[in-house]
Amino acid sequence: MKLSNKEWKQKLSEEQFKILREASTERPFTGKYNMHFEDGTYKCAGCNTPLFASETKFDSSCGWPSFDEAIEGSIEYKQDRTLGMLRTEILCTNCGGHLGHVFDDGPTATGKRYCVNSLSLNFNSNP
């Protein structure tokens, strides 16, 4: 999904644009999905691609929604050397939107912690 910055700015809120298109980060403990634990699917706020199943979400106490596994094929991984750190950035494979980062310090069997900005997500409840 390729849109111009002008088209993205029309589609997204100002805060969503900063996160999804400019790789910004929302303040910790402020996102609506941080402590959200309903059954359903978390989707990309930019293009509605399914990213995470609710069964993979856990409370990591880090201030952002955390998941231990992504839906297969939904995430692109990119090395991120900003802020003087080496991290793995996660992007939506469909629209290239910045979602957050993945770390190898998760408490479940996968060992992963996908740390995601709430503003990069939409949620659909399971019927």
Automatic annotation (TrEMBL):
GO BP term, pick one: protein repair
PROSITE patterns referenced in this protein's UniProt entry, alphabetically: MSRB
Family: Belongs to the MsrB Met sulfoxide reductase family.
Name the UniProt record assigns to this protein: peptide-methionine (R)-S-oxide reductase
GO cellular component, one term: cytoplasm
Keyword field: Metal-binding, Oxidoreductase, Zinc
GO molecular function: metal ion binding; peptide-methionine (R)-S-oxide reductase activity
Cofactors demanded by this protein: Zn(2+)
Reaction(s) this enzyme catalyzes, per UniProt: L-methionyl-[protein] + [thioredoxin]-disulfide + H2O = L-methionyl-(R)-S-oxide-[protein] + [thioredoxin]-dithiol
Pfam families on file: SelR
Domain MsrB: 5-126
Catalytic activity, EC: 1.8.4.12
Name of the gene this protein is made from: mrsB2
Xref: PANTHER family: METHIONINE SULFOXIDE REDUCTASE, METHIONINE-R-SULFOXIDE REDUCTASE B1
Organism: Psychroflexus salis
Domain of life: Bacteria
Presence of keyword Zinc: yes
